[in-house]
Write a structure and sequence with these properties.
The complex is a heterodimer of chains A (205) and B (287). With 205 residues, chain A is α/β, with parallel strands linked by helices. Chain A has 7 helices and 6 strands. The longest helix of chain A is centred in the N-terminal third of the chain and has 13 residues. The two termini of chain A are 18 Å apart. By secondary structure, chain B is α/β, with parallel strands linked by helices. Helix content of chain B is 40%, strand content 15%. In chain B, the strands form 2 sheets. In chain B, strands 8-7-6-5-4-3-10-9 form an 8-stranded parallel sheet. A two-stranded antiparallel ribbon of chain B has the order 1-2. Chain B is globular, with a radius of gyration of 18 Å. The model of chain B has no long low-confidence stretch (mean pLDDT 96). The chains are: A alpha/beta (205), B alpha/beta (287).
Chain lengths: 205, 287
């Protein structure tokens, strides 16, 4: 059974090795770490997407960011589930249902972003469809709506450079039909990419 | 390699800006702009705000001109050093003088560094630095008399002469009691050198930075820059900054300059390229 689902961003600028003297990721990293602290001692499974444009032999950015944030929060990851960033919905469902069927109580840490096409200065430039897509994604989290997350369109998400669609759908499938309530959902896009900090807990609202 | 100026300690990656503050009515570049004490103090405030690591206060222009005796030189700089010291307790203060009696007076007034621009013309200068525990800059002038221009000087190998002279002066300073970590060497571009010499010293600066002493370079708006580009005084900033970048890449540590903001930016850029200073802020491709 999945006890909690936590969502954090997947930006490379969260990794200290990419920080300048003025650390552009400091605030976001700090907020994400704070969100994770209460997971200490729990059985945390990291759910991440593969890289969209891999050029190196390094582990996926989402995996490294998730592991860093957990380490900074003093939390150990019991396991990691990595799904291709553009995995079909059925692949996500299968992975999520396996998590749901695992023995014991699990807490999921999903490293996932919305669109990277939210403005003319955004990494993927502006796509007018990005804002409504992201609104749907955030609304689904804000209402702990697993079905809403599973309804996100993989093809549109790919067009919009959404790094988090597949891992979010793994988590949504793991939530299954159980009731969850949103504890915290915050969205921001300081660089034209939708970042989400969110926590859902099992139980009625 | 580590070195010390005042209470500060630096390593081999340091690239420090030493701002020129002239208490002279006739220096070649500023032509008396900071001759008045309040103007000079404003200059100190400005260069500190611009990021200078130290100031170099001088009471006599380098070029030939009206003779300034030690008493007049002291009138120009000693009280001013006291004033600067009281307003900026932590600022590293250098004084540009070749005279040991002037050096003694400014050290008593709070100077941290004696910048002997004339190659040890006064052999007692290191003893003063030793007595006060301050730093000393040793310079290469080819042995010319202070305030004379080089005329028809040739070297078999100018860099070899620089290395020999500076090594001798630095070791002598240490033998007289100056702390090894407070001895700097300066090839002194344009001093006892034609432009071919200064350019060769610049090109081969790594032979100096490899000696293990911190290296000071004084390039700012000098004639070798002007002759390299065909530029008059007042038109040499870009040439100076290009020379600064090359010198920084070759490992010089202290840069004696008129233009602090521009120099600081060039040095920071070189440090960032060299990987010894992180970039200011990075988000490109990382969001």
């Amino acid at each position: 059974m999945i006890e909690t689902v936590t969502v954090v961003p997947s930006a490379l600028l969260l990794l200290p090795e990419y920080a300048g003297r003025d650390d552009a990721g400091a605030d976001l990293r700090g907020a994400a770490v704070e969100l994770l602290r209460d997971l200490a001692g729990r059985s945390v499974v990291l759910v991440v997407g593969g890289d969209r444009e891999p050029r190196s032999t390094k582990p996926a950015v989402g995996r490294r960011v998730g592991q860093l944030l957990l380490r900074l929060a003093g939390v150990a990851a019991a396991d990691v589930v990595e799904v291709p960033w553009d995995a079909p919905l059925e692949v996500c469902r299968t992975l999520g249902e396996a998590l749901a069927a695992a023995p014991g109580e699990l807490d999921l840490l999903v490293v996932a972003d919305g669109s990277a096409r939210r403005g003319e200065k955004a990494p993927g430039h502006l796509d007018e469809r990005a804002l409504p897509f992201d609104e749907g994604l955030v609304a689904a989290l804000a209402s702990a709506d697993a079905a809403g997350l599973l309804a996100l369109d993989p093809a549109l998400a790919a067009d919009l450079l959404v790094q988090g669609r597949a891992p979010l759908q793994v988590a949504a499938a793991a939530m299954g039909g159980a009731a969850y309530r949103p504890v915290r959902v915050e969205a921001s896009d300081p660089f034209g990419v939708l970042y989400v900090l969110a926590r859902l807990e099992r139980g009625g609202s | 390699m580590r070195f010390r100026l005042g209470r500060r300690e630096y390593d081999e990656n340091a690239r420090l800006v030493m701002a020129i503050v002239n208490r002279t009515p006739d220096s070649f570049y500023d032509k008396g702009l900071t001759w008045a004490e309040d103007a000079a103090l404003d200059r100190v405030r400005q260069v500190v705000a611009e990021g200078a690591d130290l100031v170099d206060i001088g009471g006599i222009k380098a070029a030939p001109g009206v003779e300034i005796d030690a008493a007049e030189e002291m009138r120009r700089v000693v009280g001013f050093v006291e004033t600067v010291r009281s307003e900026f307790p932590d600022l590293v203060i250098s004084v540009d003088t070749w005279r040991s009696e002037v050096a003694r007076a400014v050290c008593a007034a709070g100077a941290d560094l004696i910048n002997d621009a004339w190659g040890g013309a006064d052999p007692a200068l290191p003893e003063v630095a030793a007595e006060f525990g301050v730093a000393l800059v040793c310079t290469h002038t080819g042995g010319v008399t202070p305030r004379t221009r080089p005329h028809r000087i040739e070297y078999d190998d100018v860099v070899a002469d620089v290395v020999r002279s500076l090594t001798e002066q630095a070791e002598r300073a240490v033998s007289l009691g100056v702390e090894r970590e407070r001895v700097l060497i300066d090839p002194a571009h344009d001093f006892g050198k034609n432009s071919w010499h200064s350019l060769e010293v610049t090109r081969r600066l790594d032979e100096l930075t490899g000696l293990g002493w911190p290296v000071l370079v004084s390039l700012s708006n000098k004639d070798f820059v002007g002759e390299a580009l065909g530029r008059a005084v007042g038109e040499r900033l870009l040439g100076t900054l290009a020379t600064t970048a090359v010198s920084a890449w070759l490992g010089a540590h202290v840069y004696r300059v008129h233009e602090v903001t521009e120099t600081r930016e060039v040095l920071d850029m070189v440090s960032v390229i060299a990987g010894t200073l992180p970039p200011m802020r990075t988000t490109r491709g990382l969001a």
